[in-house]
Amino acid sequence: MDRRLALSEIVLLGALGFSAFIGIWTLLSVTGIVPRQFLPTPLDLVTRFIELLSQPFAGSTLPQHLASSLQRYAYGFLLAAVIGVPLGLMMGWFRLLDVVVTPLFDGLRFIAPIAWVPFAALWFGTGIGGPVMIIFAGAFPPCLINAYRGARFVEPRLLEAGQMLGTNNVRMIMEVLLPASIPSIVAGLRVAAGLGWQSLVGAELIVAAAGVGFMMVQAQANVATATVMAGMAAIGAVGLVIDVLLRQGEAIIRRRRGLNA
Amino acid sequence: MGSIRFENVDKVFGGHGNGVKVLDTINLEIADKEFLAIVGPSGCGKTTCLRMVAGFEAPSGGIVSVNGRAVVAPGPDRAVVFQQFALFPWKTVRENIDLGLRNKKLPADERQRRIAASLDLMNLQSHADAFPHQLSGGMQQRVAIARAYVLDPEVLLMDEPFGSLDAQTRVVMQEELVRLARVNPRTVLFITHSVEEAVYLADRVAIMTRRPGRIKEILDIKSLRETENWDRFQRIEEVMDLESFVHLRTHIWKSLREEKAEAQ
After folding, report:
1. Tally of domains in chain B
2. 0.90 surpassed by pTM
3. Residue B163: inside a domain, yes or no?
4. According to DSSP H, which parts of A31-116 are helical?
């Protein structure tokens, strides 16, 4: 267990796990142990995925569905970040705001984003507003919590240094708390991005007239399992890309700060 | 103008019947442009004294005042130099020094002039655009001193400023501070656990007892320094060899030793 693995071994073992997964899947579907209707083969998936790149399903091609999902996602995520991060920082600085908001926030944040679906549809409709609200519900808590924690755990000496230099509240938040909290905020944005993306697809299964989730629901109604699976693959791939990009952003910020990544 | 006054100051940490008394009836006056060092066993509350003048802590009893006004909050009239520098890592040397000036809403040209002067004063010209983590500990502390001096504060509060520096750098900084104090005298409250440092730098040295800290004794160094003209020496080791210096140091050592012995 303690033996250190070489990089080549790590890559090899990872590939092994992945191949085993594909192998068992192929075995189950091709032999008919699981009816192909319920479990498409990997080849079915790839074929369907490529078809969907150009053939419309439920009104749009897969890239168009993805574009519509990503647009809502961007709105919801940005809204969560733009409200959550400043609010979290302010709660970390103004004790009164902290005391007023924290109980309310703690009371609401354990409601799963999907639980907001009925009201989201009622208040904002199934176009763009409803799904955006669900994404917001998923992405907002990590944005707020991480900004808040970042602000609360700033080295006390730095706060004291700021105070003795006569720094006012706005400048204290913008030039001391915000930069000191950047690593924590970026980590929060990463979590928020993941949760937001998952919430979005969940929301689209219920409240949407376009998007990857909508496409999957439509496919399910037609028992087009390969299409459902193509949607899942697209969701996984986009989620991974988002995470990788944010990870890179985080590493760049840490390096610029002189922190080891 | 900048005088500091402690009147019957007590400090209790914690509270509700089980608090720990760290300071007991501190009475102390530091005159305008006087350099006073406090030495004492660790945990005696000497840093707490400084933090009360800075406005980071409130006294549990008594009054701490600067220029006759009771201290209520931190402010740029009482600049602090921290042991751990407390520079903003995301700001360059220049930006660190500039923050206090911007807070004072000084015009840009005035700020530039004062930054340049303080960089000169601390020999930091070539590091103006460096970030703190690119500098050595000694350099970082120069920046922190420059950041305090540039505000032209009434009093300077230095909390073991050289405590985390290596021995050589420490000596250089001590000599530098003496130079600074002669050229540009300030009211300074200096906390240290180094007896030599206190005797070398200060006009007066206050010795504190172990917790709960009281002022045990105050020694006048200035008159001796002036009669014997210590300032004719360039280097700290030359001063440290003088009989009068050795005598004072030994006296303070013994006084502190008694505190430790009683604690055991």
Report:
1. 2
2. no
3. yes
4. 42-54, 62-93, 95-109
What is the chain A residue with the closest CA to B75?
Answer: A164
Query: Other CB atoms closer than 10 Å to residue A105's CB: what's the count?
Result: 18
B82: nearest CB among A161, A163, A180: A161
A40-256 maps to CATH 3.30.70.890: no
pLDDT value at position A109?
85
Look at residues B4, B52, B47 and name the one whose alpha carbon lies nearest to residue B28.
Answer: B4
Q: Is residue B224 part of a domain?
A: yes
Q: For chain A, what percent of residues have pLDDT higher than 70?
A: 97
Structural domain spans, chain A: 1-39, 40-256
What are the angstrom distances between the C-alpha of A228 and each of A62, A114, A231? 11, 20, 5
CB B104 within 8 A of CB B117: no
ipTM of predicted assembly, 2 dp? 0.91
Ramachandran quadrant class, A208 (left: phi over 0; alpha: psi -120 to 50; beta: rest): beta
User: In terms of domains, do B15 and B129 share one?
Assistant: no
Answer yes or no: do A161 and B88 touch at CB < 8 A: yes
Full domain range(s) for residue B115: 89-152
- Of B111, B128, B152, the residue that ends a domain is B152
- Encode pLDDT of A5-40 as tens digits: 888 888 999 999 999 999 999 999 888 888 888 889
| Phi and psi at residue B158, to the nearest 5° | -120, 115
Residue A260 has a pLDDT of 43
Closest Cα in chain B to A155: B86
Based on the number of CB atoms within 10 Å of its own CB, is B3 exposed (0-12), middle (13-18) or buried (19 or more)?
A: middle
**pLDDT 10s digits, A72-110:** 999 999 999 999 999 999 999 999 999 999 999 988 888
